[in-house]
Write a structure and sequence with these properties.
263 residues, two-stranded antiparallel sheet, Peptidase_Metallo, 7-stranded mixed beta sheet
C-alpha cells in the first residue's frame, strides 16, 4: 500500500503506532505499509495510531490511567531528598544518543527534572526504536517503554515532546480552555481520528494557553483533505505545531508540576 503525504497532512495507517517524520528536504521513509513523502520547514506531520490503545495519537494507555487525572502524585516521578527529580533511562544501542540527550538537556537544564543513565533503579524509561514516536503518560513503574523510531523520530524536539508525555503532560490543545484559543475544524479531520481532538477538564497549572508549546498539534494534524484542522484565534496566522524544543511556558509548567521552586 502506498500513501503519499505532504507536510502536516493526516494519514491513516494499519497496524502501527504514532508516526512523526522530520527531514531537511523531501525524503521517503517506509514504515511497514506506509510511504511518507514530505518536506519540512521546522514542523512535524501528525501522529498516527490504529489498532493500539493510544490516546491523542501518541500517548500509550497504561490501563486505568486517564489523561484527565495525571496531575496527581501517582503520575509524577518522585522527588529525591536533594530536591531534584531523577528520571533514570536506558537508550537502545541501535541508534545514536545525541538527539535524545539534547531533548533531555533542553528540559533538565531549566528544571529540577534530571534525566540520568539507569544503574539499578526499578522505575526507568526504556527508550527504544519501535514503530513511531510514543510514550506512556507520566510514570507507570518498572521498565517504561518510550519509542523514538529511527530515523524519523530522531530529532531533539520530538524527543522533548515524548519526554513531556512521560513526565505527565498531554497535548496543549487538549486543555479545558482551548476553545477560547483555537477552533477545531471537525469536518476536515479524518473521521476515525476525531477522538484525538477531545479536550479534558484540566487545571492547566494556572498558565496561559501556549501556541508555541512543543506539545501543540500542527495546523494540519489528521487532515482528511489537506485543509486545516486547527485554526488559532483571534489571530489565525499564529504558528502552531513547532518541534524545535520546549517553549518557555513548557518549561514553566514542568517546574510547577514538579514543584521545582527556584527554577
Amino acid at each position: 500500500v502506498t500513501l503519499t503525504l505532504h507536510l502536516q497532512t493526516g494519514v491513516k495507517m494499519g497496524g502501527s503506532l504514532s508516526i512523526y517524520i522530520l527531514a531537511p528536504r523531501i525524503q521517503t521513509y517506509f514504515f511497514r505499509e506506509l510511504l511518507l513523502e514530505h518536506e519540512t520547514c521546522g514542523y512535524l506531520p501528525p501522529p498516527v495510531s490504529r489498532g493500539f490503545p493510544l490516546r491523542e495519537g501518541d500517548i500509550l494507555s497504561s490501563g486505568s490511567r486517564s489523561a484527565i487525572t495525571c496531575l496527581v502524585d501517582s503520575c509524577r516521578w518522585p522527588r529525591s531528598v536533594d530536591g531534584f527529580v531523577y528520571v533514570p533511562y536506558i537508550i537502545s544501542p541501535l541508534y545514536g544518543e545525541i538527539a535524545i540527550e539534547t531533548g533531555m538537556l533542553d528540559i533538565s537544564s531549566a528544571t529540577c527534572v534530571k534525566f540520568v543513565p539507569r544503574t539499578h533503579e526499578a522505575n526507568f524509561l526504556n527508550i527504544q526504536s519501535r514503530t513511531g514516536c510514543w510514550s506512556y503518560l507520566g510514570m507507570i513503574g518498572g521498565s517504561q517503554t518510550m519509542s523514538l523510531q529511527s530515523p524519523g523520530c530522531m530529532w531533539s524536539g520530538v524527543a522533548a515532546h515524548e519526554l513531556m508525555h512521560a513526565l505527565g503532560f498531554v497535548h496543549e490543545q487538549s486543555r479545558s480552555d482551548r476553545d477560547h484559543h483555537v477552533s477545531i475544524l471537525w469536518e476536515n479531520i479524518i473521521e476515525d481520528q476525531r477522538h484525538n481532538f477531545r479536550k479534558y477538564e484540566t487545571n492547566n497549572l494556572n498558565t496561559a494557553y501556549d501556541y508555541s508549546s512543543v506539545m501543540h498539534y500542527g495546523r494540519y494534524t489528521f487532515s482528511e483533505d489537506g485543509r486545516p484542522t486547527i485554526i488559532p484565534k483571534p489571530d489565525p496566522y499564529i504558528s502552531i505545531g513547532q518541534r524545535d524544543g520546549p517553549s518557555l511556558t513548557d518549561i514553566h509548567k514542568i517546574n510547577i508540576l514538579y514543584n521545582c521552586g527556584r527554577y
